[in-house]
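Dear all,

This email documents one entry for the complex benchmark we are building for the journal club exercise. For each entry we list the sequence lines for every component of the assembly. Then comes the predicted three-dimensional structure of the complex as a token string, followed by one or two observations. Please use this as the template for your own entries, and keep the labels exactly as they appear.
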Amino acid sequence: MSSTLSLTFQYLTKTKNVAAVDVLIAGLDSSHSVTRDNALRALLSRPDAKGHREVFLRLKSLDAECRAVVSQRPERLARVAGEAMRNPDAAVSAAACEAILSFRLYDAMPALVSLVCEPEQPNAAAAAQTIAKLTEQLYGELCAPEERAVRRDVDGLRRRVTSALESGVVKFRGHRRREVIEAFLLVAKQQNIVLRQILQHPQDANHQAIIEILSTSSQGGAIRLLLSFLDEPQLPQVIKNVLAVRCDLKFVKNLLQTVNSMTARIAQEALGRIDRLDWAVPGHPLLGKLNEAGQRDAVRLLVATSIPREQVLKVLSFLLLEGTTEGRRAAAEALARFQGPEADALTVRALNNRDPAVRASLIRQLRPRGIPGAMSLLMRMVDHGHAEVREALRDCMPEFTVRHFLANFDTLPETRLAVAGNMVRRIDTDSVPILRKEMDSLSPVRRRRAVQATAAMGLVRELEERIIELLSDEDHMVRIEVAKALADCDTAPTWDALRDALLDRSVIVQEAAEQSLEQISRSLARDVGQEQLPQTETEEVLP
Amino acid sequence: MNHLVWGLVGAAGGLALIYGAIHMAKRLTHRWHNSHGGLFCSLCRVHRLDRSARRLLKQVVQYHRLAQPARVFIEPYWLDPTRLGAPLRGRAAEVAALRSRLFDLDPASAV
């Protein structure tokens, strides 16, 4: 724009001469685009309602550039839009609604609310709908950080809109427009005095409407408001009831997310005040609609609430047997907090679950519960192929770990050594490295015990090389046990090593080696005999 | 005594006359400051137009019968030399120069 023309418009914008408004209005219809844009800017900058009205009337015909200019100062059109809404001509009021929404004329809210509150106002329905949509737009801005950055004082705007809606809520009895209440709940904070007063007085005409909307609205803002009450140390009873009756998926998902974002202590405090949730029933359709994470979070939530434990246990039972993978796992973990015959029975019943994580959780609970026959149940599972289950078995049967076995080896009766050793081998998967380390010990007693334990556990073949080395140990007691242990190993290196041991300086070692060699010979002969037997039988059968 | 009374009445009348004159002048000034004529004059002053330029602009306004004379300052259309009638055709060059000055436009170009 030329500097002279700019000077002209600067003067027309600032002059107190009201004739400038007429000139600028004429400029709005100019064929010269620079004049048009500048006239629009100047009119929006001036406080004259006449100019704003003319801009408003031309909104539909404005090009994109001019609409952008209007978007920079939309508040100037709010009053005019409010006036246009009162126009009995449906087309004018519809255009006003459209303009209010497309330019986000939040400052038109008081005019809209006042229109709704007027008795027998023909445009009240349209105004109510505009209120609802406009508030949704504001809520969208409040939720979007990038839009908050564009607008300077979003919180101030929220306060103004809330304040305008408050007057509509107070007059609800007269207009009965649900949209106004819903819009109010969308932007109000839980500390809002009007909201508090209505919630505290059930006899209030608006009380029922507010409760009904809080119980049914799927609007994000209403759900946010409802959940924000969880932060309060004193949860109002009416809100407690609303939280209890809401069974819609959107609300429950939001509830679970809110609880998830809380620290454990705060979540415990907040949820401890909830003693009823209508969806906390076995087989409730909502539980089936929750995804993996949802069921997991639902379990954590239910456990933290004050809902009767029997009821929670029933839901856990349902999820443990019919839930998603994550739901089952969470239920199995949560079951540890429940005592009593029902919980014990559920633990045993769910022990056959195919998910190793669930099994592992339940296995860890068996012995602390003192369930009769728990040990035999555990022993039946020692051959389970999954590492997680084996680890759980090791955790809950510490007496069957190799370290424990070594520590108590000398006190165990000889008749039970083989059985115990076999169990240890199957449960403790880290046996071999521990035994190898023990065989490297400086103490001859520990080395000897390691060899004995290896033999009892049937792990001589796995540690054959190291055991053969110990046949040259300086301590003859160790060598004796090695010579005895090698009887279980019929390989060529063992045979050679035992043959060498026949020349040991200790007679007892020689005798032990001789016995082992004999045992290996017998074993080999038996094996050969068994292999030949079927051949003979076959020969007899063949013609 | 009579002289004193007449003197006071005369003084009061004089004061009322002065007050009325001031009031009238204020109203006229206010009206002028909120009129299209006043706006036109103010814009002439803003652009430091001399007497002949002002007179020429007034003639253009009269020719186009503009209800708001200040429009000639924001719409180059009115100062387009090709749209001038017979009375102003002789001063087309001056109008073009004025248009160029107010809108920074090429004097030869038509809008």
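Observations: Confidence is low (pLDDT under 50) at residues 535-543 of chain A. Chain A touches chain B at residues 2-5, 7-9, 11-12, 15-20, 22-24, 26-27, 30-32, 35, 38-39 (CB under 8 Å).
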